[in-house]
Design goal:
Layout (H helix, E strand, L loop, with lengths): L3 E5 L8 H11 L6 E6 L16 E5 L11 H14 L3 E4 L2 H15 L3 E5 L2 H9 L1 H17 L3 E3 L2 H8 L8 E3 L17 H11 L3 E6 L8 H14 L3 E6 L5 H9 L7 E5 L3 H10 L2 E3 L14 H8 L4 E4 L4 H4 L13 E4 L5 H13 L1 H15 L4 H12 L1
Parallel strand pairs: 1-2, 1-4, 2-3, 4-5, 5-6, 6-7, 8-9, 8-11, 9-10, 11-12, 12-13
Length: 391
């Protein structure tokens, strides 16, 4: 594999699916062949989640506060590191603006680049419209066409990239894989996890959601759905694991709700604490929706929950249906979960939750199938595929 510089906004210690995606792919590559340039704007907040690496990781501030374009700092950092490390190729973790930076630096140094996209970053310019949307589409098209290849996280994302006139043979799917897999530690000192364990011991049904806390993840609608769920299952509890810009708003909403005793916010958890939370839950629910061109490109968390033997509920939006084998009434040997048709309708969500709570045999079978399904997705394969493309 050519020595490659990955340029990405998404990398540990900041938690999230995209962050985990790049981290795990890099972990499965030769440490001598990969260098990472990551944004440092969240390092202090999430320093307790900082990791150690066998390869070189540079943390720098990507954006300028006073100069336009704001990513001029990122351009300078990329050029300096690429020269210092004698890299032979560039990997843009997102098409804009990292792809633009890779295109410019690639031309200056005479080295190729490739781009990875997760769905929302290519869908947003199409949905946006107007002068800004057209400008971004034009810029994005140049970045994608100039790349030696483009990697995507699902067939859904691939279908969007093709709308930019990119040849299908140039687009390669690198599926995410679970990071947080069994076994969970026997004991976890995290006080929130201990609270969930206590609720479980008291016979509570734990309904878990794991995601960055943003609108498009559907946490608000699941909270609304819980109002119907607790009428039939008053011992059910919705656990929201993650942190994000909507955290404070949702906590306030929960405090003002008659179901506040049935909702637990954990914040960002360590890997061990999250594993234990997966182990303790009965059902996994995340019902993403499209919000202003932002979409769920795939959904690693469905595979993670499945690897712990948990049935999952998702929505028929974006790439989520590729991570879930939907139960259709006949495929009990393969299905891993249920899909909500309208993630903006709490009634649709509560119906699916109630189905799994009431049909314990079905829920158990879906969870068992989820364990086998999750094993089909590995980071080793994804890394090998990228290495082969770079050879």
């Amino acid at each position: 594999m050519k020595k490659t510089l990955l340029i990405t906004q998404h990398f540990p210690p900041h938690p999230g699916g995209a962050q985990n995606y790049y981290y795990k792919l890099c972990e499965n590559m030769n440490p001598e062949s990969i260098v990472v340039l990551a944004d440092n704007s969240h390092n202090e907040k999430y320093k307790h989640l900082m990791r150690e690496y066998d390869y070189t990781v540079y943390y720098e501030r990507f954006y300028s506060r006073f100069f336009w374009p704001r990513w001029i700092k990122l351009l300078r950092h990329t050029l300096q590191i690429a020269r210092a490390e004698n890299v032979e190729s560039l990997w843009a973790g997102e098409p804009l603006p990292k792809g633009v930076v890779a295109l410019i630096v690639g031309r200056l140094l005479g080295i190729p680049y490739f781009v990875t996209t997760h769905g929302a970053d290519v869908l947003n310019p199409i949905r946006r419209g107007g002068i800004v949307g057209e400008w971004k589409k034009t810029l994005l098209t140049s970045v994608l066409r100039g790349a030696m290849f483009v990697t995507v996280n699902s067939e859904y994302t691939k279908s969007i990239v093709k709308k930019y006139g990119i040849d299908e043979d140039k687009i390669h799917i690198i599926y995410p894989a679970p990071q947080n897999k069994p076994p969970a530690p026997a004991q976890v000192k995290d006080t929130v996890v201990q609270k969930i364990a206590s609720l479980k011991q008291k016979g509570k049904k734990i309904i878990l959601g794991v995601s960055r806390v943003v609108k498009r993840k559907g946490i608000d609608m699941t909270m609304e759905a819980m109002k119907s769920v607790i009428k039939s299952y008053p011992d059910s509890v919705y656990v929201v694991s993650g942190e994000g810009p909507e955290s404070d708003c949702l906590r306030l909403s929960a405090n003002d709700s008659p179901i506040f005793e049935h909702i637990v916010f954990t914040g960002a958890l360590s890997c061990d604490a999250l594993k234990k939370t997966y182990e303790l839950c009965d059902i996994f629910v995340m019902v993403p929706r499209e919000e202003k061109g932002l979409i769920e490109g795939f959904g690693i968390v469905y595979l993670e929950a499945g690897s712990f033997g948990k049935p999952v509920i998702g929505s028929r939006v974006g790439g989520a249906p590729e991570a879930i084998v939907e139960y259709n009434g006949e495929n009990l040997d393969d299905a891993t979960g249920l899909l909500v048709e309208n993630p903006r309708n709490p009634s649709d969500i509560s119906e699916k939750i109630l189905t799994l709570l009431s049909e314990e045999v079905l829920a158990k079978r879906l969870g068992e199938n989820g364990e086998r399904h999750a094993q089909r997705f590995t980071w080793e394969k994804g890394a090998r595929d990228i290495i082969k493309l770079l050879s």
